[in-house]
């Protein structure tokens, strides 16, 4: 199934409810977080796109030239394309709020959508990596953001995770962070934090 160029899975929720976009990590697909999203917000519309960039057969949302080295032109292309996709589907489903959840590469495209376009009222970024200094965006004031991370994550180093958290705080977003002692894996305390985050009034 395609819509605006992305293969995706979609569950249409109840009218007037939020729409939740879930973004997989490198090598994942539209199935990685779709059912998790449905359990998180049973009445919401859930949309899970598959990244349209192939890295040796692994689906991603934008190109990179090395580990943690982004193709910034392709990141801009992907951000513009995904922005239109998100806005079109949110409008089509009459969503009350736009929510996002992404892991690793999916967290990075979600973070850049926030930085460049705003768009999301609340977002959970699981093990994000933004290796550049984002520009100021006053539209992020009041947005709710959860960042989860591992203290020994070789892909998303602690210093860059803390820098991203500080950036969002600097834009006056409401930032929560959840750490575990491991690496680039998702652990139970993150799942619990995500559940609490999306159960809070929005």
UniProtKB/TrEMBL annotation:
InterPro entries: AB_hydrolase_fold (IPR029058), Dienelactn_hydro (IPR002925)
Record's protein name: Phospholipase/carboxylesterase
Membrane-spanning intervals of the chain: none
Pfam families the UniProt entry points to: DLH
Domain Dienelactone hydrolase: 79-182
Organism: Rhizobium viscosum (Arthrobacter viscosus)
């Amino acid at each position: 199934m395609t819509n605006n160029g992305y293969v995706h899975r979609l569950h249409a929720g109840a009218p007037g409810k939020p729409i939740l976009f879930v973004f997989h990590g490198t090598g994942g697909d539209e199935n990685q977080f779709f059912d998790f999203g449905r359990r998180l917000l049973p009445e919401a519309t859930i949309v899970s796109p598959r990244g349209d960039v192939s890295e040796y057969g692994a689906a991603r949302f934008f190109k990179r030239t090395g580990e943690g080295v982004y193709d910034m032109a392709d990141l801009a292309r992907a951000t513009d394309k995904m922005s239109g996709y998100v806005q079109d589907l949110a409008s089509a489903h009459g969503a009350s709020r736009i929510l996002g959840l992404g892991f690793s590469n999916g967290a990075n495209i979600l973070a850049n959508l926030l930085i460049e376009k705003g768009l999301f009222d609340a977002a959970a970024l699981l093990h994000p990596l933004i290796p550049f200094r984002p520009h100021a965006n006053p539209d992020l004031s009041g947005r709710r953001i959860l960042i989860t991370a591992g203290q020994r994550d070789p892909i998303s180093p602690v210093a860059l995770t803390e820098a991203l958290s500080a950036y969002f705080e600097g834009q006056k977003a409401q930032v929560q962070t959840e750490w575990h002692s491991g690496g680039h894996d998702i652990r139970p305390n993150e799942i619990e934090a995500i559940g609490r985050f999306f159960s809070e009034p929005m």
